[in-house]
Amino acid sequence: MSNSVSDENPLVSKTGSLKKVKNSQQALFSLGMTVVAGAALAITLLPLFAVLSYVTVQGFNRLNLDLFTKLPPPPGLSGGGIANAIVGTLMTVGIASLIAVPFGVLAAVYLSEFSKGQIARWVRFATNVLSGVPSIIAGVFAYGLFVVNMGGFSAIAGGAALAVLMLPTIVRTTDEALQIVPQDIRWASVGVGASNYQTVLQVVLPAAIPAILTGVTLAIARAAGETAPLIFTALNSPFWPAGFDKPTPSLSVLVYNFATVPFKAQKELAWAASLILVFMVLLTSILSRWATHKKVY
Amino acid sequence: MISNTKSAQSESRSRSGAEKSLDQGFIWLTRILGIGVGVILLAIALTVGYRALPAIQQYGLGFLFGSSWNPVKEEYGALPMIYGTIVSSAIALLIAVPLGVGTAIFLSEDFLPLPVRTALVFLVELLAAIPSVVYGLWGIAVLIPIISTVGKFLNSNFGWLPIFSTPPVGPGMLPAGVILGIMTLPIITAISRDSLASLPPDLRQASLGLGATRWTTIFRVLVPAAFSGIVGGIMLGLGRAMGETMAATLLIGNSNQLSASVLAPANTIASLMANQFAEASGLQVAALMYTGLILFILTLIVNILAEWIVSQVRAKYN
């Protein structure tokens, strides 16, 4: 940032004498504003590094085999692990993916392949609005629809809430991925006699698969970190998950519950679970970034 | 995109009836699921509204202005939570707007080489990837001690101001607002940067050609031209801040008392629900659903406005 005085356009800075006036008011103002904007960037990135480093330092010691194989200890005791929460997270996120992935991909196929003007605009608008719906509202929705009607908290209700949150991401990324597929290969496919569903399933979707997978992976990773939709749908449990229709533990709810307890062992587990969640989301974000650089067309 | 009517006409001779209906069935399946995305939005509104009905009938619009939340006496009023939601979001925007727009300007100009800027843009995006509950846990361990120190100073020196009138007790409105600010930074930065980057290069060239410096160009030409996009990004950030739950719940202190001081514990609609839903029964569920409906409507208005503004900007320059 120190050499940023050079930001002036040559035509602009060469006033009269064709020499840069380094101490003019304008040059100082420019330098000052550049420093302010650069400082804004530095402050913006500060929390990222602060959170990542702190979570790593706090959670790293607790990463051992017990963490992945044992149940959380009762209050006051030490040791134990978060194995039940890992299984529970896989269950709820699995249910959510089973609902949201086919739903989202086919909805995006409609948007990009079969829809005309007005309806597509409304559906895209609804997708964007849905992505802005607070995650806790997705939980309230699943509570009102499943928990009340099914008579209790369950992995299914939690999965449904997560599916609502995953859906807009999947629709949007698939829609974008399909639109990048060149029109020629659709014409070629229809030209050799393929029907609409053959064209979509065997030509267009395979061509867009890397980008779609990227979007799906990101959506899954984000869903795994979501807490608000789970605290009153899947609830929690200190035991192994007992079934898809029973209260189910998850990593994120475990972090929430153990964040405020006074016991050291539980706090440590909360940090270790946070580290796993953060690591997983970061890894998928970086991998997806890398994957989108490679294009089929 | 595939035009189904045309292809159906040109191929009608060679298709068997079964294959044609399979084809039509597939198109209908995607159509139903496509429209289904909109139906989900509607279903959320209807479900939450239906479950809130007992509380709506019981308390009416007075619910919005009642300031006591007492499950034992079945007295429910949402004013402290509505106030907490608005004030914590306002603190969040106070922090995130200058930082986010400043970052967006810095990253949309060529201060740094392009590969470095691309990497920095990605890092800002990563801020949005950290789970909310992890922000909350970090906030308890790191942010609250820092803000308590600052809060003590503010209270002892500026205690005559109503907003600093109580001594900090740890969790409170200010730490929650700060964490919400951090969490809304990525969206405000991303949308502002997008709208600055999508401006036609002619604008910049014309301004520089007339003899303006870079920062004159930014303030007088680029920011005004991208203004509606930036406002759209800020509104999306506001929507996020209002609905953000876990970090706020862990840092705000969950007190249903109205207090003018930002150092005192407070509550937001989202954190009220996070705290009480799992153990609620009867009328309390309906009252919580009512607050959920209020939050849903608030965020819906903000998001629809934001989407509309952002889509107007996209239509203008694409």
Descriptors:
heterodimer, A: mainly alpha, MetI-like fold, 2 domains, two-stranded antiparallel ribbon, 2 strands, about 70% helix, B: about 325 residues, flat
Give an overview of the whole structure.
The complex is a heterodimer of chains A (297) and B (318). Chain A has 297 residues and is mainly α. Chain A folds into 2 domains: 4-60, no CATH class; 74-291, MetI-like (MetI-like fold), CATH 1.10.3720.10. Chain A has helices at residues 10-13, 25-60, 65-69, 83-114, 117-132, 135-150, 155-180, 183-191, 196-225, 251-259, 264-291; strands spanning 14-15, 19-20. In chain A, helix 6 (135-150) packs across helix 7. Chain A is globular. Chain B has 12 helices and 2 strands. A two-stranded antiparallel ribbon of chain B has the order 1-2. In chain B, helix 10 (246-252) crosses helix 11 (269-276). Chain B starts with a helix and ends with a helix. The model of chain B has no long low-confidence stretch (mean pLDDT 89). The chains are: A mainly alpha (297), B mainly alpha (318). At the A-B interface, helix 1, helix 2, helix 4, helix 5 and helix 6 of A face helix 2, helix 3, helix 4, helix 5 and helix 6 of B.
